[in-house]
Amino acid sequence: MELPIYTVDAFTDVPFQGNPAAVCLVNNEKLLSEEKLQQIAAEMNLSETVYIIDTHQTGFTLGDRFRIRWFTPTNEVNLCGHATIASASVLFYQLNNQSNRITFDSASGPLITERAQPNGITMNFPLNPPEKQEEEEMSSLLQLVLPKNKIHSLHYSQSTKKLLVRMTDHCTRLDLESLRPDTTAMMNAESTGKVTGVIITLKGTIDNGCVDKNGEEYDFISRYFAPWNGIPEDPVTGSAHTVSGAYWSDVLKKKSLYARQCSKRGGDIRIQIKDDGRVNLTGKSAIVLKGTFMIS
């Protein structure tokens, strides 16, 4: 069996930045076992391998609705933003899909993606507002993530199992980028399954260095660690911004936000909070590789 595959860097228009995902086009899902889907993801060894499945047999050029599944190197996940942007980018800009809007049916429900000018993708995701959490409940994990004097507050999203740690306002972008948490120790400190990812975030200002290459100020910046899913640090994470976007929208009293994920590769996300409990995330992508996966 030959499986078309692409590598796409999401949330950037510059190759080798943003977050890479492997995008596989599947005409007949029955030919791939669950074990084989996971083996391919492990072989690609990127933070996410995504399968676009033509369940309606309309073709990847003409169809406007597909099934989507996301796998890390170790397990399947219910939602992945950057791999969804990567998927839509392949369909829209590589295969020249005729639609302006594509719906992906996922474990998290229908996800709508649209072309965004210039050469971007907007995706509509469920919003996941976090609730305030007492630090004492997560003290063993927190001490591995951030010094106590740099923690402003702690928040938890039960729907995504993501923990959001806000840094104090006297911290800078350099403080965030300099953090080197022990992700193995983090897994050992939290083994109950309650937390599967940690967002560390900081309010953006010009004075603390939170500006893009053109001088535009970020509303907030963040980093995301998910060793529980086989990802010590994710370069840019759409699903994390369904949590952090909800949090900062409430704090800043803004529905339109501009964010940066400050990993080594890094990437920018435009966020628009909707009134229906959902959020639009917009980003660009760079398709850097295409080929064929040979499966026996």
What are the defining features of this structure?
single chain; 296 residues; alpha+beta; 8-stranded mixed β-barrel; 6 helices; 17 strands
Your description of this structure?
With 296 residues, this protein is α+β, with helices and mostly antiparallel strands. It has helices spanning 34-44, 81-94, 139-145, 173-177, 183-189, 238-252, and strands at 2-10, 19-26, 48-53, 65-71, 76-77, 101-106, 109-116, 120-126, 131-132, 151-157, 162-167, 197-203, 220-226, 231-234, 256-261, 267-273, 278-294. An eight-stranded mixed barrel has the order 1-2-3-4-6-7-8-17. Strand 10 (151-157) and strand 11 form a beta hairpin. Helix 3 (139-145) runs antiparallel to helix 5. The protein is globular.
Q: What structural category do the secondary elements indicate?
A: alpha+beta
Which sequence of SSEs, written as H and E, runs from N to C? Answer: EEHEEEHEEEEHEEHHEEEHEEE
Strand content: 35-45%
Report how far the terminal alpha carbons are from each other.
6 Å
**Roughly what percent helix?**
10-25%
| Number of helices in the DSSP assignment | 6
What order do the strands of the largest sheet run in, or round the barrel if closed?
Answer: 1-2-3-4-6-7-8-17
Measured on Cα atoms, how large is the radius of gyration?
A: 19 Å
- Low-confidence parts: none
